[in-house]
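Convert to structure. Protein one:
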Amino acid sequence: MKLKKNIDFDKLRGGFYTPATIADFILTWAFNGNKNCDILEPSCGDGAFLKSIKRGKYHFNSVTAVEYYKEEADKAQKVNLDNTEVVVSDFHKYCNTTTKSFDIIVGNPPYIRYQYFDKEQQNEAIKIFNKNNIKYSKLMNSWSAFVVGCTNLLNPIGKLAFVLPSEILQVINAKVIREFLLSNFSKISIISFKKLVFEKTQQDVILLLCQKGNTKPHIEYLEVDDDKALKDIDLYKLKNPTKNIYSSDKWTMYFLEQEELDFIHQVKINNKFSQLNKYLKVEVGMTTGGNDFFTVDKNVVREYSLTKYAKPLLGRSIQVKGCDFSQKDWLDNNSKLLKANLLLFPSMKEIKNKKNLNYLRLGEESGVSEGYKCRIRDEWQIIPSAIISDAFFSRRNSLYAKMILNSAKAYSTDTMHRIWFKDNVNVKALIASYYNTITFIFVELSGRSFGGGALELMPSEVANLYIPYDENNDKLFGTIDNMLRKNIKIEKVLDYVDEIILRKQLKLSIEQIRMAKSIRNKLLNKRLNKK
């Protein structure tokens, strides 16, 4: 854990200054010709939105700008915007004590983990969550309380517009916030960027534009190259979102067209598709507490006489070409001096070999034994939950996520998820059934994408993937494995499987399969363009 004293001021206050292009666009949307507005900026920083209001020569009743840091509030005060009060306060406390309500709330709230808040701030944030029946979690980021608290301060047809991290669209712990938004707003618009707006932080952000009302909620999702392209957006689309909202699970899907969203919804309610949790259990791989120390190549095994404790390991999905990790694959990796061995040590009192003890001493001297995961163990060198799984699922992915049969009876670290199949499941049939375009759509929709284009799925997200399982698909397993081993492009593999499973078994039309491929390509390209 980083200490506050080791974090620069910008990171500690949780934000970076909002570009004028973004502030100007948000205010153009928010004002929309209105002149009698009371406005709140809950984390005004140096006054980026105040400057934008002044530039735009908007007419309004009042502006209230809240800022925690006095040095930032002083900068905002110097904007000299008429009818404006700059309040030096923690927003959470202000939110819980003010009697004011607002027509427009705009801002770029801080992105701070609650561990960096003092106790009073945390307690005030919890009050906001409790008031709205939202369970507080330490995994939540500070922007969550700003979204919830500011929504409470809006008038019945008020507007909220925030610059937020893209995680609001996709992470599991933000689901409660998405549900909250759906229950409070009738119009929700999202704008994302192909290029990073805050390059200094590598933080991928979106604009969230919401309006209260009495109608069923609808959503719109637009993507532009960068903040300079905001001026080209047709604001009519944002005034009148039309897409139906099927779920609060992930919002990354809503940049698709309505017919594509309908197609995905129809798959979910099709009884020929089931979620993976019907057939298997997924858990994270082993947390070693120091992969560089506990995973080694055969030369290290030989040098320190560690054969007794060295077990076969699949360290990364790149170490297997097909959908079956065999004993031969492991031997090949070992011969190539890959880190193909996991060291599973017993209790210290059982270790007598001097070379073994010398290796463990290296772990102590390099600080591995003092790392948090090792330090909390009864004996730092004993890795818990050392269990061999039936299969693996790649945790972080580029072009696609792999499901891999563990024929080698190897172990895995937390770079892979572990899978155990339920009784009476045809293992090879299930893995073969996974490799189709529609399931790959749900992989893209379920995971979290990062600024570099990587896609990460957590165990619960893997378990919720939709799959057209059929016991007869075990006949496809060998062909899929061979195609992958020959480095045949994944698109060709999916073509082969789609023709048999989607076209012949499920009787999907050519047009439906084409739509599925188009949807996957859109999702994939959107993610990879973040590189």
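Protein two, convert as well:
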Amino acid sequence: MNPLSRTPILALLIPLIAGLLLQYFFDIQHWTIAFFSIGAVLALLSYFIPAPKRFQYRWLFGFGINFIVIGIGILITSIRQQETSFIFPLEQNAYKAVVTDIPEDKPKTIAYKAFLPDYDRNIVCYFYRDSLQQQLVPGDEFLFKGKIQPFHNMSNDFDYASYMANHGFAGSVFVGSKAWQATDRIYHTPKIYAQRWRARILEFYQSLDLSSDQYAILSALSVGYQAAMSDDLLQAFRTTGTVHVLSVSGLHVMLIYAMINLLLRFIPRRSRFYVLKPIIVILLLWIYAFITGLSPAVNRASIMLTMICVAEIFGRRNYALNGMFIAAFLLLLYNPLSFFDVGFQLSFLSVFALIYLYPKVQKLITVQNKAANLIWQSFAISVVAQLATFPLCLYYFGTFPTYFFATNLVIVPLVTILMYSFGGILIAKLLSLLTAFGDSIIVVVIRIVQILLNLLSWSVRFFESIPFALIHDVKINLFQLFALYLIIGCLSTFILNKKAFYLKSALGCILIFIISKIIYL
């Protein structure tokens, strides 16, 4: 049976995406009622068909539901667009704001993401360094006076205004040294609590004897804080095709999930207490999501794995692909604009490849030796993940990391070890509070982590220094993007099924791709 046929939520996800695309590009919110009406009429009509012909016209109910879901997609997208529309006065005005995230250091300013309760809008506040008499933290309320401006595109290559709108921000403001004042009020929401815990972890890292690069990599890998990364170090990760490891995402959550399952192996499957295992996994996964600031990427992976654990609780067969589509459906219902986030697209494409394609690729070669099999599995993971994402990277960034196969074979295992060592830091810290010899343990653990961080940094910079590590200026258009995915899909199916039809289809798509490149030169 085709795995895609066992994912019923996909039948709802596709019309939902169709609805949000229609609203995003064509602004047809005034047609929402028409989609709901047509859908309701078709669905109800299917119940009035005589019983002998009901099976023949069963498609009416399906079409009706599709029209309703398209209408839902249009409606929720228009609501989100209104939440990021610019509605502020064009002159200076007084505002009340709440800090919602950890501040980010810029060359001359410090950027705070803030929420304006009176306007129900999110903005970015830029404070000049000499104007901050005190450091604000998530949840702090402050008053300021300034002129909020809409976002403007700084170049033709990047739609910065749409990027910020898709991330939920309506404008930005520069706040002068005497134009703001903190209040004593603190807001309390789950998101703010999560950011406060994330800030405490970063303060703990700062108390350790780490270099700037070590602190930056540790903060990025464990809690997804990239603001401390230097430009040259960040570029090194981009050049080697390993920048994905710096964003706390599905990879990191999967590693945490694997570690929790390993620690809970003592609970046998046939035990009456086995039901506690998925419950504990869900609880610990969301604790990790909480301390990483409840970022969208972590939420995506946590929801997917939660669905898998829930299926296990009720004795259903684990099916990760359906869990992934459920996670996508729920997240797009909550925020349809996240569909246009590059991270969202790359995350789901890579997870889809790992769930759907990796098991098939991994079976192509049977390796008896355990060490060699581990290398083959790492190579297969790297290949399928890059195959799924590199056309999208070409479309958005126009660059291709030449040595991504080799770098991922080195970097991903290192990141895996580091992710597990972060748990060692927390355990050692706990022992230092409970036992007399705990301080010695934490010194040893931190030293091991420093060695691993240095090895990771050295490896990335080494691969970056190899000639032709990054190919530039290979950006493609939307038509060529779909052509590339058709080529990859046809070639993959040919390799797995050995049918000539798919090879001929792949060659035809390659010819179309080459012609399109010649036409658009």
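The chain is about 60% helix and 10% strand. The first strand starts at residue 93 and ends at 99.
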